[in-house]
Structures are given as C-alpha cells and as structure tokens.
Amino acid sequence: MSSSRADTADGPRSESYREVQDSPEFAELRSRFRKFVFPMTALFLVWYFAYVLLGAYAHDFMAHKLWGNITTGLVLGLLQFVSTFAITLLYVRWANRTFDPAADALAARIEGSER
Fold first, then answer.
1. How do residues 67-108 score in pLDDT, each as one tens digit?
2. In sequence order, what are the residues at sequence separation of 6 or more whose Cβ sits closer than 8 angstroms to the Cβ of residue 12?
3. I want to staple 16 with a disulfide (CB 3.0 to 4.6 A). Which of 12, 31, 47, 82 is the partner?
C-alpha cells in the first residue's frame, strides 16, 4: 500500500463519508429519524415535566387516595416507567420496520460502490 493512497486499512476514504452525507438517501434517512424521534422526545418531556410540576404544585391532587394507600402521584409515577418502556418498544418496532432496512440499503449501496 502506498503512502499517498487515501484509503486506510481501517476503512473507506473520508471523501466517501461526505458523499454519503450529501446523498438524497441519507437526507431522507435523517428526515425519517427526526420525524419519529423529535415528536416522541417532546411528548415524553411534556409528560415528564407535567408529572414534576404536579408533584411540586398540586399536592392535593397527587396525594388523592385512589384505593388504600395508592395515590394519584404513585400511579402517575409508575406510568412514567410504563411510558418509557412503551416509547422504547415503539422505537424498536419503528426502527426494525422503517429505519433499519433503509439504512442497510444505503450502507450496501455505498459499500458496493467503494469496491
């Protein structure tokens, strides 16, 4: 291998990364990712901060006993965990069906063009 060659033993040339980043396929992939992740993140943050604000300012509401010693605050707190797992499940299903196949196709196209 000559020293003037841009390829390395570790991987493709840096120019090919720029080509991928500038490609319409990559832009579409990035757009798909953002259309899923940003709204999901915003939704979760609103839900989380609503819980925190209710805990800080709505003591009577959060202390309301639903049955026995189970309060509204406890139920909402447990729902924070449930929503985290639900969002994770939604993301994994979405990624497996939508995002990963497109990313794999782009990777295969790029890797094939470098050989």
1. 999 999 999 999 999 999 999 999 999 999 989 998 898 888
2. 110, 114
3. 12
30 vs 37: CA distance, rounded Å: 10
pTM: 0.71
Q: Rounded to whole angstroms, how far apart are CA atoms 45 and 18?
A: 33
In a domain, 43, yes or no: yes
User: pLDDT tens digit string along 11-26?
Assistant: 555 667 788 888 888 8
Contacts of 87 (CB under 8 A, 6+ apart): 40, 44
Residue ranges making up the domain that contains 61: 14-113
Q: Domain for residue 2, yes or no?
A: no
